[in-house]
Amino acid sequence: MITGIELIKACSAIGAGLAMIAGIGPGIGQGYAAGKGAEAVGRQPEAQGDVTRTMLLGAAVAETTGIYGLIVAMILLFANPFI
Known about the structure:
The protein is mainly α. It contains three helices and no strands.
């Protein structure tokens, strides 16, 4: 028989796994941004500094989504508020 605590732990593990799916979006977004940044520098090499700066800022903002997913997963696995 499954107790309530075991059920909460199992559901938390599933939830942590689902939270890590949030890492897919930033990976796709950063790859797309890097490709477009390289394309822009190829077309206008004199604008390399501006393009690179903007691309890195966008990558940093996109990465926060993956970090939030990781934090949620860690909380569910190690500091579970439901137990």
